[in-house]
Amino acid sequence: MKASTPRSGAVRPPSGHQLPLRVGLRDTATFANFHPGANASLVEALRNQFDSRGEPFVFLWGGESVGRSHLLQAACHQASARDLRALYLPLEELGHFPPLMLENIERLDLVAIDDLECVLGRSRWEEALFHCFNRLRDADKRLIVSARAAPRQLAVKLPDLASRLGWGVTFHVQSLDDPGRLEALKLRARDRGMSLSEEVARYILHRGPRRLDELFAMLESLDHASLSAQRKLTIPFVKRVLGW
């Protein structure tokens, strides 16, 4: 079963353990609607991971709302489009389970592990991750890992796991500057089929939150309000809907 089929809702580990992992991929989390800014080389590495010279192991690190989860899910979407089996594991949501979902995971083509820091310091998880990384490498499969800090800055207790985190190529996911945030906002609006003028986009960016995920959530609310009222997005309409 492909883990990149979000409509199914439940994702089960390849070993057959019946853990009700309620995770899926957001339909909007694709490379096409990700504005890379200073992350162009990172996006290229993920896009090319299954090419003959692609990187088998990519480690991403960065702060909140820089797009790490988006990129991991985009890689899974791309793998699915190539008829490859991919699994997205957000450990912030799944870390309270035992690491049974990592058993026999080398049967998959791509494994994307998000929020690694959420399970570090727990011996059972660290040992399972260590063996998982080894099996994926031996099977010539692809792995992407995401965390809030670089590998050497993570609180890893198992030395062998710490060494494995340095196997591949590491990218620092850079946050967007204001021009980049403007382009990301316009790109997300186009992806939703919204008519968003430059003037209104700049107004939203100036008055809205700094975090991109909150900015996109605000854009979604405006989209719903615009469709409901059958009104175009103008500055007065945005003011009224958002109470500015």
Automatic annotation (TrEMBL):
InterPro entries hit by this protein: DnaA_dom (IPR013317), Hda (IPR017788), Hda_lid (IPR055199), P-loop_NTPase (IPR027417)
Name of the molecule in the record: DnaA regulatory inactivator Hda
Spans through the membrane: none
Pfam families: Bac_DnaA, Hda_lid
Residue span(s) of domain Chromosomal replication initiator protein DnaA ATPAse: 27-170
GO biological process, one term: negative regulation of DNA-templated DNA replication initiation
Hda lid domain mapped to chain residues: 178-242
Domain of life: Bacteria
